[in-house]
Amino acid sequence: MEKKKTIEIILSVIAILLGAAIVYFFVKGNIAAAGVAALLVIIDSCALLVKSRGKGDMVTLFKKRDRAAWEEISGALKEEGIEGVKTGHYLQETVMGGGCGAKLDPRDFGSHGRIDREIYWIEVPGRTEGKAREALKRRGLVPEVEENVLLDAAFRKKQEDTVQF
Predict the structure, then answer these.
(1) Rounded CA gap, 126 and 75, in Å?
(2) How are beta strands 58-64 and 86-91 bridged, if at all?
(3) Is the pLDDT of residue 165 over 50?
(4) Within 10 Å of residue 119's Cβ, how many Cβ atoms?
(5) Segments making up each domain of the chain, as ranges
(6) What are the phi and psi torsion angles at 91 (to 5°)?
(7) Can you list the positions of beta strands (E) in the chain?
(8) Which of 154, 150, 134 is nearest to 142 (CA)?
(9) Segment 23-41, tens digit of pLDDT
(10) H-type alpha helices, 29-128
(11) I need a labelling partner for 155 at 20 to 30 A (CA). Which of 26, 34, 50, 122 fits?
């Protein structure tokens, strides 16, 4: 991780120096040299973007409404030393609040208290997906990605009950 940060700093410094060279050559009237420096800035900037923002290889390993499994899987990945793991959760659905303007969800006041409707997710870099899956398999954990996790439960039930030919 430290090596990646050092490379990013070096590329940033090179981009700044090349930017200064563009200004210098432009002021001196050497447009060709300024153009070459500009081309080098573009190349260097692309390299910096690839190094710092190369997130396109992330693979969703887990996405489900199951906090216990999410905590267990993310803990196992951390203990195994899998690098680049990203975890999080979010609330997809919203409900109209009560009529009093308090913006409270009426479903949170049932006999069992607040219902956990969060969607929990875990992503790993593509290059470590096999290693992560193998580590979870050794521990007897099965990561799941529910494609219909965003659908309302009643709508999912209707889909399951409907047979399409």
Answers:
(1) 19
(2) unpaired
(3) no
(4) 18
(5) 2-53, 58-146
(6) -105, 115
(7) 58-64, 86-91, 118-125
(8) 134
(9) 887 788 888 877 787 777 7
(10) 31-53, 67-80
(11) 122
Q: What value, to the nearest 5°, has the Cα angle with vertex 66 and ends 161 and 58?
A: 100
CATH number for region 58-146: 3.30.70.1370
Distance CA 70, CA 120 (A): 6
Provide the token pair at 71.
Answer: 């905590």
Number of H helices, E strands in the chain: 5, 3
User: What are the CA-CA distances from residue 43 to residues 34, 54, 110, 126 (Å)?
Assistant: 14, 16, 59, 25
Q: Which two tokens stand for residue 97?
A: 């609040």
User: Mutual orientation of helices 67-80 and 129-138 as an angle, nearest 10°?
Assistant: 110
